[in-house]
Amino acid sequence: MFAPQAKSQRIITSLLDVDFYKLTMLQFILAHYRNVQVRLGFKNRTKGIHLGRYIDEKELRQELDHVMQLRVDNTELHFLRGTNEYGERMFRESNLQFLKNLQLPAYELEFKGDDIRLEFPGEWADVTLWETISLAIMNELYYRRKMAELSNFGRELVYAEGAMRLGKKIETLKQNPNITFSEFGKRRRFSKSWQEYVVQTLCQEVSPQQFLGISNTSLAMKHGLLPMGTNAHELSMTLAAISGNTDEGLRHSQDEVLQQWWELYGEGLSIALPDTFGSDYVFRTMTKSQAQNWKGFRQDSGDPFVFGEKQIKFYQSHGVDARKKMVVFSDGLTIDKMLELERHFRGRLLVTFGWGTDLTNDLGFQPLSLVTKVIEANGRPTVKLSDTLEKAIGPRDEVGRYARAFGYSCDFSAPPVY
Amino acid sequence: MFAPQAKSQRIITSLLDVDFYKLTMLQFILAHYRNVQVRLGFKNRTKGIHLGRYIDEKELRQELDHVMQLRVDNTELHFLRGTNEYGERMFRESNLQFLKNLQLPAYELEFKGDDIRLEFPGEWADVTLWETISLAIMNELYYRRKMAELSNFGRELVYAEGAMRLGKKIETLKQNPNITFSEFGKRRRFSKSWQEYVVQTLCQEVSPQQFLGISNTSLAMKHGLLPMGTNAHELSMTLAAISGNTDEGLRHSQDEVLQQWWELYGEGLSIALPDTFGSDYVFRTMTKSQAQNWKGFRQDSGDPFVFGEKQIKFYQSHGVDARKKMVVFSDGLTIDKMLELERHFRGRLLVTFGWGTDLTNDLGFQPLSLVTKVIEANGRPTVKLSDTLEKAIGPRDEVGRYARAFGYSCDFSAPPVY
User: Fold this and answer.
1) What ipTM was predicted for this assembly?
2) Cβ contact, residue pair B221, A77, below 8 Å
């Protein structure tokens, strides 16, 4: 049975309650970009919902302040030091020492009318963990408030609805043993305790041949699961921003991401995320040996069917057998979409899923669309185009410059700006 | 507040709920003695208490059977793989794989009148973990029965008494910051949940400069503590038993233990346990370079003051500065004895303590004196003399032979036999 957490308990109680990819990226940052100054910015993309109306400033500060008190403990260091599923001793001792000493630095918080400005300035390595931590806090405070508006029984019904929906998904999973997935829902979870309930239930009900792992490092540790994740747009965006003023520099920065990542982790973590400036650019420019060596791609925006077809063509153009290469779909999945995608690409690509919000925040409420991104690096604004207009961010002139540099064909004259 | 475990919960729920030394010894066994056949035997040394009167055979079988279902999980493997406090990557991958696949083999159990015969035959590496596991099970079943004889309020008073006694110890510790110790009380704990309560309280109340670590691997992992321990009599006893019929072989086997241990772990785990066949033998025969290299000794039987003085003389005879060498007292400690010993040896040896039964089983009941030892190796009976007559075990003629071989001067003509 699900037991909701007491309201008095803090939302984040461990610095490893972050996506595993934060830790793999942290090593990348420490290896090459130790002194880059960045600013992470929180952004609510949910139309019609103004978080300042739901979240209490004092409570938010309490949660954020509490995170600043946290330290990585000895067992957590053991867990990371002992991680060798993606390569022997993948966390270097010097980086474990960095983590041992890490204290998340101060945030900037301002309630502006109904909106909330929350930013994290500092050295990249110091602030990067704030990303998924700030998202989980915002989500949980928002839903706590939504739940507080209900009666006791009303809340019970919410959990009952959540359990029913989870039950249906599990039934479908059991009927479709071809579906394999990892739980990627930390950042947009309804609450910490609900995520834990979902994960526990999946452990009990779904075969480990289907439920492969989890992005949440703490929960991986707690439940003996495989921590999952490679990297995020953060790398591409930051490296592009600090690359200088030339189109050549922009393009070169993206080759760097792939090369330096490969140097650091080799095949173990070789799932590329190509859509930061349009996947077409990456499919066009990745080399034959990269096509051969890298395990595959993660799809995170645009039409997943179109993406998969492009990925197959990419392999064909390099004479690589696509059937041995992986696609990890991770964009707004539902069980039905997963079934469709798996059927469509079965036998043509190795298909697996990073299943997030729909797993950990499906109790009847509208999920929020929140992001915390690097918005500035060494004083330069960052840009993301992605494979879908709605997800693009950055100042308009920079977006235009990036689009030209990467040969991106969409029309960016209208919306996407922050 | 302490919350006792539900009776329906199993006593052992993880194969790492064992002393850390079992795992360091397991590596030693796997490296050199993979195929030695042994028999572990449980023995109740408590005078006047017949366990068969207190422990129900069916319940005991349920607990033991449950242990046979347990497997080391992924997080536990990470924890061990990540253990580098005593040397880089001290657990070899092949041995972690052994642990991953380990299932404890069947036991032999027989209720004979009021006594219980419990033995574990099999390959040494397969059965060795049964030692501290069987002890914890026997203890907890016995004290559950004792508690069942009380009223609800009677039980509350037991826990209140336990808390008061623990509180006094903690107060004394705070007043004596020179005292450093590790918690060694897994094998004779009152119950799993009481040990956990004690450990949690120590974490909260006692500085990590005093509370250095813990022998229980699971609890080290759960509380971010340093797992503590090196080795036990098991190595000396087994190697002696399989050494053949000559006195020379017996003596040589003990040199082997030290040499092979050093080869495996070097300085990291170089705390010798010298008393298996009388500490005098070891003090007489350890070489100058061993005296220089090894960190120190654990004292586990006989008079601790006499032992410490002998240890100091041993270093003097080799021109080694005793003040830089360690003594770990671990035999039947109380806080008063610790204070006395620390005062006596302060500035002459580095003094620390392995504090067991008195920490985890001090609630007013008489502690049981239980052991599970290798009683047979490759068909030969084992022997232990130790520095005190009462702890000696083995068939009388073998005890005599060992005493002669190791130049042990005590009179073994009377009691110690099993």
Assistant:
1) 0.73
2) no
